[in-house]
Amino acid sequence: MDWENARFNMVEQQIRPWDVLDQTVLNLLFHVKREQFVPEAHRQMAFVDMELPLGNGFRMWQPKLEARVLQELGLKRTDRVLEIGTGSGYLTALLSHLVKHVYSVEIDPATADAAREQLKAAGCLNVTVETGDAALGWDRHAPYDVIVAGGSYPTRPEALLGQLAEGGRLWAVVGELPVMSASLFTKVGGAVKEEKLFETVLEPLRNVPPAPKFQF
């Protein structure tokens, strides 16, 4: 397979049309080899516009979603990032090239081990992969400049917002089927501003509390 041609087509046919125009992000997609983070059984589909199974019930995001998240966060070299759900480690690797340090927390030990190995092989030295449940945050290294949630929440994730530093940003998908939205939350002056970016569908993070039931 011509990996470089497939990568070019991914960027030009999927990612640019989805309003990802930040040249730093586009360049990074050529630099970090996505196919290296895809399980062998699905490697030929590394650049297809769909989620890919990782095993243990996890899925790898669509390429355009990964790119859009990077662009919307406006990442800085001084940022300390919490990623909830390491998954394949690909988004972790992308983040690591743009920020000071990434703390990535994965609930599944086998998935965490595989991601550590791949990130090490890719030369991502400013990443710490920890095993645990960060659905309600990970206070070990808080506060964070950026938090990226790898799965959805039924309602606004207040616990995560409480771990943001001043000026910090949280990217999360909020809602329940059939209505879910990707939102960027920004903490300014102690208050939180929410910007709804686009509608999408994302599996809930494991162990996220359900939305409160309406009572008469």
Automatic annotation (TrEMBL):
Residues 65-206 form the Ribosomal RNA adenine methylase transferase N-terminal domain. This is Protein-L-isoaspartate O-methyltransferase. It comes from Chitinimonas lacunae. Belongs to the methyltransferase superfamily. L-isoaspartyl/D-aspartyl protein methyltransferase family. It comes from the Bacteria. Keywords: Methyltransferase, S-adenosyl-L-methionine, Transferase. InterPro entries: PCMT, rRNA_Ade_Mease_Trfase_CS, rRNA_Ade_methylase_Trfase_N, SAM-dependent_MTases_sf. The keyword Transferase applies.
